[in-house]
Design goal:
This protein is an all-alpha fold. The protein has one domain. Helix content is 68%, strand content 2%. A two-stranded antiparallel sheet has the order 1-2. Helix 2 packs antiparallel against helix 3 and helix 2 packs parallel to helix 8. It is globular and about 55 Å long. 41% of the residues are buried.
């Protein structure tokens, strides 16, 4: 009997690459990378329960974080191409939520204009993803644009960027196999990325409650902007994801 053909998700088009965690034949193919998405759900609930930020920002961040929880969970649960598309698409929802809220705060744009920017940006990002496939580059560029807008604003925004940069280090350690145990289905570098990224989202959201004007040094601002916008391009498509066959080649 060919066991591969009995795997639940094999009926769908598979994602040709995987993270370090070895994919299993079951309903959940990457347990560690799946359960760790609970951080996004917790943060979404916290955002929904918050009453200190305007309803537009709260709604934007709540739905984007909830979409990220669902998209990332489905991706790592299934290991499918459509799951990956949902995951990266949800990341665009989040980056556009951050960028749109920053534009609203700085330029005092109208509600309808904000909706057009937010929804239009997501649609254009998904079209870009479908045809170009360099999702991380665009995601980083959108966050970098937000850092430029917010460079004179609250320190909490920079706390979120530092937290996100720390999460990204674990992402790199996972895909580059610096920290890699394929048979560890409880914790992985990518699982830590999920948890720290969830904390960063909360800091992003909380930053819009503050209006103090402490400016980060220009050198630090330049380093953060560069890393968010250009580091993803240094990882080519085959370096971003560890091929599944390499993980299973030794079996």
């Amino acid at each position: 009997m060919n066991i591969v053909n009995t795997c639940f998700w094999n009926r769908f088009e598979g994602n040709p690459y995987s993270f370090c965690e070895k994919q299993l034949c079951g309903i959940i193919v990457e347990p560690a990378n799946t359960w760790s998405n609970v951080g996004y759900l917790i943060v979404a609930v916290m955002i929904f329960s918050s009453s200190h930020t305007g309803p537009r920002a709260r709604g934007r961040f709540f739905w984007s974080t909830l979409a990220l929880f669902l998209g990332s969970t489905l991706f790592h649960m299934s290991g499918t191409f459509w799951g990956k598309f949902l995951d990266v698409g949800a990341m665009f929802c989040l980056s556009m939520a951050i960028l749109t809220t920053s534009l609203e705060r700085k330029y005092k744009i109208e509600r309808q204009t904000g909706i057009i920017i937010f929804v239009g940006g997501i649609i254009l990002s998904l079209i870009y993803l479908y045809f170009v496939r360099l999702g991380l580059f665009l995601f980083g560029a959108q966050l970098a644009a937000s850092t430029i807008i917010e460079r004179r604003n609250a320190k909490r925004f920079w706390k979120s960027l530092i937290c996100f940069a720390g999460a990204f280090i674990f992402w790199i350690m996972d895909v580059k196999k610096i920290w890699c145990d394929p048979d560890n289905h409880f914790i992985s570098g990518h699982a830590v990325w999920h948890l720290l990224a969830a904390v960063a989202i909360w800091f992003f959201f909380k930053s819009y409650q503050a209006e103090d004007r402490h400016r980060l040094p220009r050198l630090c601002h330049a380093i953060v902007s560069f890393s968010l916008a250009y580091v993803p391009t240094m990882l080519n498509d085959e370096a971003q994801f560890l091929p599944v066959e390499k993980l299973q080649g030794s079996e």
